[in-house]
Amino acid sequence: MPRLCELRDVGLTGYAEGLTLQRRLVAGRKAGLIPDQLVFTEHRPVITQGRNAKAANLLASPDLLSRAGIDLHATNRGGDVTFHGPGQLVGYPILDLKDWKRDAVAYVRALEEVLIGALGEFGLPGERAAGMTGVWVRGAKVAAIGVHLSRWVTSHGFALNIDTDLDYFRYIVPCGLTLPVTSLRSLACQASRAAVTGAVRKHFERVFDCRLAEPVEPQQLERIA
Prior knowledge:
Layout: E1 3-13, H1 15-30, E2 36-43, E3 46-49, H2 62-67, E4 71-74, E5 81-84, E6 88-94, H3 104-120, E7 126-127, E8 135-137, E9 140-150, E10 153-161, H4 193-208, E11 210-213
Parallel strand pairs: 1-2, 1-11, 3-4
Antiparallel strand pairs: 2-6, 3-5, 6-10, 7-8, 8-9, 9-10
């Protein structure tokens, strides 16, 4: 039987709110209080800097970003600088890899496979780029991936551009790469967020051999400090 993974679609959130939720879920997973989790969200405009972020890849001052309505957060995920905002599907898997594979690289490749499979549902040829992390379509990056592992429990995850305002990316060098960024809308795909979420869900279950379901105890997070 596929193992259970609880799905939480929390809608539009601030980035700090999303971090707080992730930390509680990671604590609960480490303590064995909850099964694996997959959080779907969509963030208000924010630029995040990963552990390997280079200052030169942030092209605007914090003051300018603030005036543009964009938050700025340093995070413990891997990778460089990226943008989250409305029109993205952001996924945060909280998985204990001891129950899957104790292999961080295989985990990142699996996330790419999930997204490539989901894009294929809409006739889009998602692909990897040699030596880089994420998913591309026709030479433009459509999804970013940045993860963190602690005692083999994962956090952070992926951001797939559905109808994101790509103008926001002018404030950064996305993931430290001077390559174009795209979205499903820019690729003439009119799929709704619900349809894209459904496709990602389908391929997440396939790749990770799990069964996604609503939380059995909706209030279970109240038990986690």
